[in-house]
Give the backbone structure.
Amino acid sequence: MSESMTSPEIKKSASVSRSRAQPVILIVEDEAALVALLRYNLERDGFRVIEAANGEEGMLLMREERPDLVILDWMLPVLSGIEFCRQARRSPEMRRVPIIMLTAKTEEADKLRGLEVGADDYVTKPFSPKEVVARVKAALRRAAPEPADESLVYRDLVMDFASHRVRRAGRDVHLGPTEFRLLRFLLENQGRVFSREQLLDHVWGRDIYVEPRTVDVHVRRLRKAINIAGTSDLIRTVRAAGYALDADG
C-alpha cells in the first residue's frame, strides 16, 4: 500500500518541478480576447502564463507568484498601469522584474512617461503577437543572472553580480533591470563615450527596436539613482555625441 501511495506523490512532485522551470509571465490586461491571444502564443513558446484583469489583482499576483516578466496594460481598472509600475519599482522584491507595457497610446510623450515610471519596453496596440513574444524573450535574456564570481568597481561605486547589488559610498543603490545593464556596460567601458545608437545595440540588443530617446530616459534614471547625496556625478553627457562613465566627470 505504501508503494502505491508513494508513486503518485513522486509524479506530482516531478510535475511541479517542471512547471517551475518554465519562465512565468504575468499578463495584467482587462481585454479577455487580448489575454487569450497572448496566452496562446506565449504558452506555445514554452512559457507559463498567469493573468489578472486589473492592476490591484496583478500587484497581488506579482507579490505571490514572483513572475519572471510582466506584460502590463496602461489603461487598467482599480490600479492603472502607470501606478502599477511605480509600486513595482519601489519594492525591493519586484524592482528587477522586467515590465513590458501595452497601450493604445502612440504619442512619444506617453511612451517616455511609461519608461520614466519603470517600464523596460513599450508595445503599442494593435501589435503582432510574435513581436511581443520576441520582446519577452529579449527582455528575459537581458535580465538573466550575472556570473556569480564577478564584480566591477569604479571609485566608490561597486557592482556585485553574486548578490546582484550596487553600492555607492557604502550605501545600497536600487536599480531597475535596464539601469543595471546600462551601468554594467558603462563600468566595463570606463571613459569611453557611446552614442545613443551604440548603447541601444549593446544594452537593449539588435533584435529589438527601441527609440533613441529611450536611452535618455534610462540614463536620467540611472544618474538619479547612483548620484546620491554627497557624491559626484559619475555620468558625463557629451553634447551631440552621447554618454560616458568618465573619470573626469
Q: What stands out?
A: The chain has a mean pLDDT of 83. The two ends are 73 Å apart (CA to CA). The chain is about 45% helix and 20% strand.
